[in-house]
Amino acid sequence: AIWNLGSINIDMVYALPHMPEPGETLAASSFDQGLGGKGANMSVAAARAGAHACHIGAVGPEGKWTVDRLTEYGVDTRYIAQLDTATGHAIIAVDPSGENQIILYPGANRALTEDQIGQALTAANAGDILLMQNETNMQAEAARIGHQLGLRVAYAAAPFDAEAVQAVLPFIDLLFLNEVEAAQLQAATGKAPQDLGVDDVIVTLGAKGARHFNGRDGSKIDVPAQRVTPVDTTGAGDTFTGYVLAALDRGLPMAQAMTQASRAGALMVTRHGAADVIPDLKEVQEAKF
Length: 289
Ligand code: ADP
What we know:
alpha/beta, four-stranded mixed β-sheet, binds adenosine-5'-diphosphate, UDP-N-acetylmuramoyl-L-alanine:D-glutamate ligase, nine-stranded mixed β-sheet, single chain
């Protein structure tokens, strides 16, 4: 099983004629609301890839529909707390050129408690995967608990924060970075990915594919990207991460896990939206590129 301590956001997307100036009131020409948050995206990806994905998180009163939607996508939602604080949300303004501006309110995503995590993880088995990203509180505590319980601890260092990654480094077995995050981490630590003391480091490179660094023996695996015409890259990295972990949880070797994830990521960039459009395993296996 995959235990994902992660954010759940309501993504509110507004199409605007131009970005608002200070003091300006601007009417949007369209509005879309969807399920997002890196955590939710990764849980949905893992579930759609066939894993038992158990989400540990929190929402407020107006976010109950997000939990229903996660359930509908196959995510186990029993450890999502219902709080009195606002559900995390992103207000996303998009101008006609496709440029965006985002206001992010973490809300309930930063109100998780160590008790809640401890309680959820008492149901975990040694060898299960614990996943985290940097959109919740309690990451270092969860990493430490997961490590003590003998779980395989995975961390996606996004949104990037050098201190947050370094706080979990001693406890993690797998680390996911995109190209920019990998450069930022190298600048902060002075260490190359294979020298971080983490067994498996996976760096995604967008249209250039992905690379695995084996921290035990220094070897590398390169996985090419599929050739597609991107329309919206939102959620590609999250989908990739969820798919890699689901495949590893099924016992597939790293190279195969990454190949499957790269096919899922490629499908994702051909679609608008986040969690709501993550492909399932059958689509990923049958896709022709
Ligand atoms: P992030 O969204 O976190 O920045 P990336 O852009 O590196 O992550 O994308 C994650 C993965 O999704 C890539 O490793 C690749 O497999 C796939 N992907 C992303 N962009 C493209 C693209 N333009 N063409 C094909 N595959 C892509």
